[in-house]
Amino acid sequence: MQRTAQPSRVHAAISRAAQRTGVDFDYLWNQARVESSLDPGAKAPTSSASGLYQFIEQSWLGVINKHGAAHGYGWAADQITQRGDGRYVVSDPDARRAILALRYDPDAAAVMAGEFAADNADTLSGALGRHPNATDLYFAHFLGAGGASRFLRAAGENPDASAAALFPREAGANRSIFYHRSGASRSLGEVYALMARKLGTDSEAPAAPMGEPGLRLTRTLPGEAEDASPRTDALSAPLVTAMAERTGFDVLRPNPQSARLAYMMVVSTLDG
């Protein structure tokens, strides 16, 4: 079982992620609160969603593949390839487990959530012709950028339409979002308003037209942040020291050969 990180550790990780990626701290904090109740060890019972931001496996592999190297996870990015059908794969099973286990690390999860949000903001702006607000971006995390664009367009055109009818697979895995307690399907507008309330925003209707304020994004280039390297804490610092003493490898920037040992040490410590 994963151990819940101290609230101060989670707060610090999200603060660093906001600085490094330029994504609003409040958005990242509220998203983690909604997704996992700020528990880095959270695991969804109905899908592969895991960690502070409940990344499913494909979304995580994709964002690590794209942004991992800029944040000290080049060893992981190098192990990921994208097939012709768009799926991300890792050929080495141990490396794959190590990469997916990063979802439970608050620093890795938060900084990748920031990068994911920034990418989604760019995609939604182009698809919708307006600046996305925090609720719009949460839908991109929840449904993917393509699914969010589809949802938001449909909600703008017909907010009374059934959300479950448009997204049956997602509704099956998230009944509390797509259905009332009575079992009746929520409308697109009702699902949007529910998400806005969960995030603690006032955007209970689709976002304002292009030109009006959306989510604050101030992109930070690698090296511009105060410290762009992965951080250690009370749990991970002993692992870094032990790994260096035993193998000579740098756990913060491991190579594929060290990934298996790093993963085994982390899991052993968390389970101990």
Tell me roughly what share of residues is in helical segments: 55-70%
**How many angstroms separate the termini?**
9 Å
Cα radius of gyration in angstroms:
19 Å
- Find the count of extended strands (DSSP E, 2+ residues): 2
Main sheet properties: 2 strands, antiparallel
CATH class of the domain at 1-111 and 233-272: Mainly Alpha
Architecture (CATH level 2) name of the domain at 1-111 and 233-272? Orthogonal Bundle
Q: What fraction of the residues are assigned to beta strands by DSSP?
A: under 5%
Q: How would you describe the oligomerization state of the chains in this entry?
A: single chain
**Which structural class do the helices and strands define?**
mainly alpha
Supply database-style keywords:
globular, mainly alpha, single chain, 272 residues, Lysozyme, 2 strands, two-stranded antiparallel ribbon, disordered C terminus, 56% helix
Note down, in words, how this protein is organized.
With 272 residues, the chain is mainly alpha-helical. A hairpin with a 5-residue loop joins strand 1 and strand 2. It is globular, with a radius of gyration of 19 Å. It has a two-stranded antiparallel ribbon. The chain has a domain at 1-111 and 233-272: Orthogonal Bundle (Lysozyme), CATH 1.10.530. The termini are close together. The protein contains 13 helices and 2 strands; from the N terminus they run H-H-H-H-E-E-H-H-H-H-H-H-H-H-H. This is Lytic transglycosylase domain-containing protein. InterPro entries: Lysozyme-like_dom_sf.
List the helices and strands and how they pair.
Elements: H1 7-21, H2 25-36, H3 57-67, H4 74-77, E1 80-82, E2 88-90, H5 93-101, H6 106-128, H7 134-157, H8 163-166, H9 168-173, H10 175-178, H11 188-199, H12 236-247, H13 256-271
Antiparallel strand pairs: 1-2
